[in-house]
Amino acid sequence: MQQADFRSPRVFFRKYLEDFQGIGLDWNEKYADWTRKNLGYFAKLGESQNFRVWSLYAELKGEYLVDLCWLVSREQYYWMERALEQEWSDKLVDLMDDFSKLMDVKAYLKVFVCFAPEAIRSDLPSLLAREISKHGIKIPEEAYLLIIFSRDARRKEAE
User: Fold this and answer.
1) Coil/strand/helix, residue 141
2) Secondary structure tally for the chain: helices H, strands E
3) C-alpha distances in angstroms, 15 versus 48, 61, 145, 154?
4) Of 90, 108, 88, 110, which is closest to residue 38 (Cα–Cα)?
5) pTM over 0.85
6) What tens-digit pLDDT sequence spans the chain (159 residues)?
7) Do 70 and 80 form a contact (C-beta atoms < 8 A)?
8) Fewest 10 Å CB contacts: which of 76, 79, 106, 115?
């Protein structure tokens, strides 16, 4: 696969949308299955772009501060190109907790994938933007991408 400019949130999101049907997410599955499939997709995408990928769902098992990251390795050092956090909780405190991890790391593109209940869905982008402005930008080229899923009434979760 040709190297894409995944520093651009627009390019990254378009690629995700292009491949979305093939990920196989199903409203009838548990969130654990969504996590496995979604992070597995991002892990494979990073590996296809020749990044060193850290995730529970990649060749390099384990997390490196965030749920998934793509690293560029040069000789004896490496840096984080993309960082991704995913949170399926419908509680604002849980969403903010995971999002704060992205604000703490240096990466060119920081992706937050979440479920947001209807009550906070429209306010979430501005709330997160305020948090970013409080914490500051870590590197001048840094960008954030927010992917929000809505709950489907057909969804069945284990109790």
Assistant:
1) coil
2) 5, 5
3) 13, 24, 13, 27
4) 88
5) no
6) 556 678 899 999 999 999 999 999 888 888 889 888 999 999 999 989 988 888 877 666 666 678 999 988 777 677 889 999 999 988 999 999 999 999 999 999 999 999 888 888 999 999 999 999 999 998 999 999 999 988 666 555 533
7) yes
8) 76
